[in-house]
Design brief:
- With about 180 residues, the protein is of the alpha+beta class.
- It has one domain: Lipocalin.
- The chain is built from 4 helices and 9 strands, in the order ααβααββββββββ.
- The protein has a 9-stranded antiparallel beta sheet with strand order 4-3-2-1-9-8-7-6-5.
- The radius of gyration is 19 Å and the shape is globular.
């Protein structure tokens, strides 16, 4: 009976550790192919506001913590194609020019006029700098992509405090007709 309890507790611990691990990384060859093509999707898993007033407010709410509130649901993305940049990300932070229209308070836009520059970063990463010309409030979007597919994104804008996102890279979805 004691051996059965030890085996079950070891199996439970293994399953718990496996389920708590981060998203499985995609092969580095696939990441290199996506970066070479210049068309990929960033899937955000976590928002990281730079303004700690926001974190303090989230921690002050009863029965909550900012660490759980900043974990994002599936579907918040940056889709980069040769002719289009589509951004759909939530915003947590200080806005200097808020809008009464709540749909304008997050990063939701499509840009057709943008430039992308690529540099090699530390530890073999690729750093993309995206400058939009048709979005007056977005200063730049920086994406650092590692060989495992893990990606760190930072957005600087004119009317908000900076915010960063942590997530992973994936292939663009193909639309079936």
């Amino acid at each position: 009976m004691k051996n059965l309890i030890n085996i079950l507790s070891t199996a439970f611990l293994f399953i718990l550790i496996k389920s708590c691990s981060s998203t499985a990384s995609i092969p580095s060859a696939k990441v290199a192919e996506l970066l070479r093509n210049g068309e990929f999707t960033f899937m955000a898993e976590r928002a990281l506001p730079s303004n700690y007033d926001v974190v303090n407010v989230m921690n002050s709410l009863p029965r909550s913590s900012s660490s759980r509130m900043l974990d994002l649901d599936y579907g918040y993305t940056i889709v980069l194609k040769k002719s289009e940049l589509r951004v759909e990300l939530p915003y947590f932070g200080r806005m200097y020019n808020p809008s009464y229209d709540t749909s304008n308070n997050s990063y939701r836009f499509t840009s057709k006029d943008f430039t992308v520059s690529q540099q090699t970063g530390k530890k073999g990463s690729s750093v993309y700098t995206i400058l939009t010309k048709d979005q007056p409030n977005i200063r730049r979007i920086m994406m650092e992509v590692f060989s495992s597919g893990k990606t760190y994104v930072s957005i600087d804008s004119n009317d908000r405090a900076p915010i960063s996102y942590d997530g992973y890279l994936m292939e663009n979805e193909t639309v079936k007709k």
